[in-house]
Amino acid sequence: MTMTKATITGTGMSTIGRNTGRPAMDHLLEAAQQAMTSAGLTRDDIDGICTYPGKADNSPGMSPLGTGEVRGALGLKTRWHSAVPDGPAQMAPIMVAAMAVMTGQARHVLCFRALTESSSQSAGRRASIAGAGKPQIGGWLSWLVPVGAMSASNWAGWMATRYFHEFGMTREHLGMVAIGQRQFALMNPAAVMQKPLSMADYLDARMISSPLGLFDCDVPIDGAAVVIVSAADAARDCARPPLRIEALGSALRSAETWDQRPDLTTMGAHDAAADLWARTDFKPADVDVLALYDGFSIFVPLWLEALGFCGHGEAKDFIAAGNIGPGGRFPTNTGGGQLSGGRLHGFGLLHEACQQLWGETGARQVANAKTAVCGMGGGFIAGAMLLNRD
Questions:
Q1: pTM, two decimal places
Q2: How far, in whole angstroms, is CA 313 from its chain's centroid?
Q3: What is the Cβ-side half-sphere exposure of residue 61, based on CA atoms within 13 angstroms?
Q4: Which residues does 223 contact at the CB level (< 8 Å), separation at least 6?
Q5: Fold classified for 1-121+220-240
Q6: CATH 3.40.47.10 region(s) of the chain?
Q7: Rounded to the nearest 5°, which phi and psi values hold at 374?
Q8: pLDDT in tens, 155-195
Q9: Cβ neighbours around 99 below 10 Å, total
């Protein structure tokens, strides 16, 4: 069974970097032009626009552009637009765009993510600190900040601590995740990290939030990525073979906090992944390429288990067996991921998965890649997507 009649027809990514000093709109226009060219579309074909999370100033450089100004800069005349600050993680705008084309609200939707976190951060106002710059902090953060849990690294750190305790995972296992993705990054000229990473380098790096060290954390950058979601019948005339959105998963069955899930060795990913597989006849064994959210390295093993590539508590052995690195059966984050490629909040991962299915990733290309799974989000929020090229 196939759930959707939506496809991905084009992707684009700007030249990314650290402290580039380029305006976010410059990055966005570069990525958007790439995406439209790759799909064989012009701005006159684009009749929808969507983004995550919408324009916001709660964290410097995190989301400087909204749909209105991007629509104006590109000269678009849209029938439909949306920004999704609340939903199944960074996958939300892709899912909403898929629903828009399936219901006839638009034919081709330009989904974008643009940020300048690297240039915008300063010693006095770190983008990684919860509620930075706010005079008051409310909601669930108000319970975490008094105990010093100011950053997502703290929240991911306690999940990793619990997982280590339950299943015997070690820092070396997470090191294998980081090193494997660095090896992929060295085959990707666009990745920001271009120096080899050894296990000694990984273990000697400074601790950020135990047991997570520097190389367990993704890399803030300046850049933009664009994904064009098209109705299946509209995609037939596009330049590339359309990638069918075979299934989407977005279920959430726990409280919307990082610390109140009944089992802290699972995430919202487990709910979203179960929802994904319930909507398709495909199985994990059918997948060729994995794009798994790696805001922190611990998220990768949790996503692997959530998606059924290994059992609960078995990720350390699955990783140690070489399954997810270069040459592995389930190559994961082949562009370097966010740990070595740079953080585009999931959009970069999806861009890489699409490029793999189109066979356009050069030295890191996975042979005969036809099916990819993408999981976005950490903690309680998550969205999952299965893509297939006929």
A1: 0.95
A2: 23
A3: 29
A4: 13, 14, 15, 16, 17, 20, 27, 31, 114, 115, 342, 344, 348
A5: Peroxisomal Thiolase; Chain A, domain 1 (3.40.47)
A6: 1-121+220-240, 151-218+246-390
A7: -125, 125
A8: 999 999 999 999 999 999 999 999 999 999 999 999 999 99
A9: 16
